[in-house]
Each structure stands twice: as structure tokens, then as C-alpha cells.
Amino acid sequence: MTRTVVFAYHNVGVRCLSVLLAHGMEVALVVTHHDNPKENIWFASVAELATLHGIPVIKPDNPNNVEVLEQIRVLQPDFLFSFYYREMFKRELLEIPKQGALNMHGSLLPKYRGRVPVNWAIIKGETETGATLHYMTEKPDNGAVVAQQAVPILPDDTAFEVFQKVTVAAEIALNSCLPALLAGTAKPVVQNLSQGAYFGGRKPEDGIIDWSQDARSIHNLVRAVAPPYPGATTQLLGKPMRILQTLVTACAATGEAPAFYVKEGNAYVVCRQGKLRVVRFELDGIEMSATEFVTQYGAAKFEFGMCR
Known about the structure:
Largest sheet: 7 strands, mixed
Structural class: alpha/beta
Order of helices and strands: EHEHEHEHEEHEEHEHEEEEEEHE
Mean pLDDT: 96
Low-confidence stretches: none
Shape: elongated
Distance between the termini: 69 Å
């Protein structure tokens, strides 16, 4: 039986660990994270799945510390897998498994190497993304590719919806290539790194809307950071506003200052170029309908950042 140590978190971690178990691999140890109390934990638990199957679980702050390395060396794993684990691995850890260390990344490498690839792909207006299983090196997301599975990004898909697709793509990619990996017949393909770029992590303040952008770009931001992510934010009537869902309208240009208004029961925002229908929004922390907004504030056009 092939033995592995699995570093995993999030839904991709749960589904990919399930694939390994379905193929009869001996998972000797699962390494995962403590849930951050400041984070919205909307995803499934790798630790719970491992416990269900009687697999030992550890949650170190640093996977590269001496104690963790020694614990893994004693297990003599054939493979090491990383499925949405959030820490980088150093050379000493990567060299432990006899047949290599592999990572599942949420993009079609070499595109969108680095952090939060699903969110970045939506922000950049991509129409396709996917999941990639690749060998790990000390440099993130640049090792040879073993398997990929593409999924579409539809024009109004949110990051949550695309992430669900990428989770399935990861499961399919791993399931399809695992027999070849176990048999030693997989044929990795070296990445052409010039065909992609590295992207960093994102913070809640990165969701502040830049109203100098066109309607499509703002729509992409809104859906890329829609709940369960922190949301796209702005100021209206001197209050914080979150725009949670939009649709692009047929209006191509306006020439007006960016503003929010309600017409015939629907809310809209005027952008520098184009106009968006606002399907869902919050003002001062309270979600309200377009009708409720008119009742409280009236039907005038309100420029963003303007106080009453």
C-alpha cells in the first residue's frame, strides 16, 4: 500500500483527501490548520474527515519546524500532498517523500500562480480557470504539471460559485491521474512560466471600489469578493456601503459622475463608462431593497462619497 502524508485545508482539501482514501492509499498523517476565529469559516473541515477515518491530525504553526520534519521522516511516506494548505514548504520537507511532493493549485498553471487564484481570475475577467496538480519546489507553483482540469467562468459567476467548480475540477484532476502516479507512469510537463504571472494575497480593503473604472471591471470586482468574501465597498450618503451583486446593463457610456439611484423598483449605479444594476446591497451594515432605499432616502441620484 502506498503511504502518504497529506497537508490540507478547505473544501479542496476535503475532496482531494477523499480521493486518496477512495484509491486505497494509506494516509499516515494529516497536517491542517487551526481555524482562524477572525475568518468566515464557510468551508468543510479536513480535520473532521481525517478523524472520521481514524487518521492522526496535527495543526502546527510552522510545517517546517524540526518536530514536524522528524514526525514525517519516521513515517517514510512515498508521497506528500498539499491540498489548499496555506504555508510554504522548505527543501528539507519536500525531500522527505520517496516519490515526490505534489500540490493542487486553483488555476490553470502557469496562469495565476500565487494566492487566491479564483478571485484574481474573476477580477481579471477570465472566462476559464481550473485546477492543476503539480510537483512542488521551494518556489511556489512552478513545478512540473501532472494533471489539469478546466472549468468555465460565466459572466455573472461569483468567486464562491467558481470555487465550487474548481473544487470539483481538483477532485477530477487528482482522480484521473492518481493511478498513473501510483504506478510510476505519470508524465509531468514542465511549465512555461512566461505564459503566466504571480499574484499576491488580497485584503478586505482591496475590495474598495474604484469608480474611475468601467462598469464591467467594477462588476468583476463585485462578484470576485461577494459573500462569503468581504464584499465590494464604497461610501454613500456618508455611510459605508457594500455592493453584493450586480448585473451589467446595455448602457455603454454615461459621461456622468458615478452615482447611485433607484428607478422603477430597481437600483442602479452610474459608472464612468457604463451602468450597473445593483441586485443586492447593504447600507450602513443593513441589507435593503431598492424600494426600502427610496422610502428612506428618496429617488434622487446620490454621488458616491457625498454626505446628506
